[in-house]
Design goal:
It contains 15 helices and 14 strands. Strands 1, 2, 3, 4, 5, 10, 11, 12, 13 and 14 form a 10-stranded mixed β-sheet that branches. Strands 6-7 form a two-stranded antiparallel ribbon.
């Protein structure tokens, strides 16, 4: 019996299906797909195998952080391209790294409270398309140019051009820097490595294992949630590109600090990769499950959003997971599998240390005792963002979708998905497989 939680006072919420694109590594130039292209590719493949039409959805909710200039309210753009029709409302959410999970949570809330029965929710991001902008000096000069009435006036403006006008504003760099504390996300991970005394060797070992797990999952064809996608030039993509099969500890040790040289510990090798990708799930009420005879993958039991100190944003999962387990009367041993998004190896390791630290749980979570350790063999079992990549608006949806597949594959009951969120937040979701639902043909 579910105790009080995010959905306890409403109707049950089921996830009936889901799909994602491969995660494509950014290579310094715009990738072959825009954020909307990725979402449409995954959405079409998902909706084509449903027993209902796209027009029968009650709404579409999509997380995205950096949509392109022609993707305003990207959820609506994608919804119309998917054939949902003008009558299906669509809206975009933004909670930085938690946006994909926020979309799922918003959909679940609407179903739980009777405002919807069938919702398409997920996230998309094309980080390789992050904008490169003019700086304010150039913007002001261009404004004067547009107002100049004569060729002579415009020639005078050209004479004022200086090198400073051509200094670009790199959107991705600014987007991954906290404007309140002035730290990049990598620097916040350095803070955690220092606080919990996490060695470079330990975080490199964690990163190496993430790559090994993803490589094994690919070899054993475990990633059934991926659909192949095709670019306009005929190229196709059918697997996550970030895996480094030939890396080893020596290779990782040779990498220089990326965020705090020369003495920092966080490198490109033990950080999440800049990536493009999209992920969707379909959520349904019990009524919709019965009406369309839908297979049930799992049920959303509870969720939690929290705020933490922005300079230590990586600890958000600890603060988000703890209230859920407390409300549900669960301990670490009651959770079969965990997905904690790997923004940085140091960040996940810090969460694991804090989770079982009596001092941290007492002073930061106001708990009488720490949690039992999370079994590393049940955490991110098919690799995480260090190997797969972290398209910011998508990852929250990916970890929920993949967690469901892990539970199904292992005939397990209960899982927790969680992630840290830039700006000092955390999100978590408790998922259960519910074998007792009557559904299907």
């Amino acid at each position: 019996m579910t105790r009080a939680g995010a959905y306890a006072s409403g109707r049950p919420v089921y996830i009936v299906d889901g799909m994602r694109t491969p995660f494509l590594k950014a290579r310094g130039v715009p990738g072959p797909f825009r954020a909307s292209d990725l979402a449409v590719a995954a959405g079409k493949a998902l909706l084509l195998r449903q027993p209902f039409s796209a027009e029968e959805l009650d709404e579409v909710i999509l997380g995205c952080i950096i949509p392109g200039p022609d993707e305003a309210n990207i959820a609506r753009v994608v919804s119309l391209r998917l054939g949902c029709g003008k009558g299906v409302p669509a809206w975009t959410v933004q909670r930085n790294c938690g946006s994909g999970m926020q979309a799922i949570d918003a959909a679940a809330m609407n179903i739980a409270h009777g405002r919807a029965d069938l919702v398409l929710a997920g996230g998309t991001e094309a980080m390789s398309h992050a904008p490169v902008l003019f700086n304010n000096d150039m913007v002001r000069l261009l404004g004067e140019w547009s107002r100049a009435g004569t060729a002579r006036g415009r020639l005078r403006l050209l004479g004022r051009l200086r090198p400073r006008h051509f200094r670009p504003v790199i959107g991705l760099v600014h987007g991954l820097t906290d404007p309140i504390v002035g730290l990049s996300m990598g620097q916040t991970a350095e803070n955690l490595a220092h606080r919990f005394r996490i060695s470079r060797e330990r975080m490199d070992a964690y990163a190496l294992e993430s790559h090994r797990r993803l490589a094994r999952a690919q070899d054993e064809e475990r990633l059934a949630e991926i659909t192949a996608i095709y670019a306009s030039d005929g190229a196709f993509y059918d697997h996550d590109e970030g895996v480094r099969r030939d890396t080893d500890m020596a290779d990782l040790a040779r990498l220089k600090p990326a965020f705090d040289p020369p003495f920092g510990l966080i490198t490109a090798g033990n950080s999440a990769q800049v990536t493009d990708g999209a992920a969707w799930v379909i959520l349904a009420s019990a009524e919709a499950v019965q009406r369309y005879r839908l297979p049930v993958a799992g049920r959303i039991v509870d969720s939690q959003w929290v705020g933490v100190e922005p300079s230590r944003m990586g600890l958000g999962p600890v603060h988000a997971m703890a209230p859920i387990l407390g409300r549900q009367g669960l301990g670490s041993e009651d959770v079969d599998y965990w997905e904690i998004n790997e923004a940085f190896a140091a960040q996940v390791l810090a969460c694991l240390d804090a989770w079982q630290s009596a001092e941290y749980c007492r002073t930061e979570l106001e708990l009488d005792a720490p949690f039992a350790p999370i079994d590393p063999e049940r955490l991110n079992v098919d690799g995480g963002a260090v190997a797969i990549g972290h398209p910011v608006g998508t990852s929250g949806a990916r970890i929920v979708l993949h967690l469901l597949h892990v539970l199904q594959r292992n005939s397990a009951r209960r899982g927790v998905a969680s992630l840290c969120i830039g700006g000092g937040q955390g999100g978590a979701m408790l998922i259960e497989r519910d074998e007792g639902v009557s559904h299907g043909p």
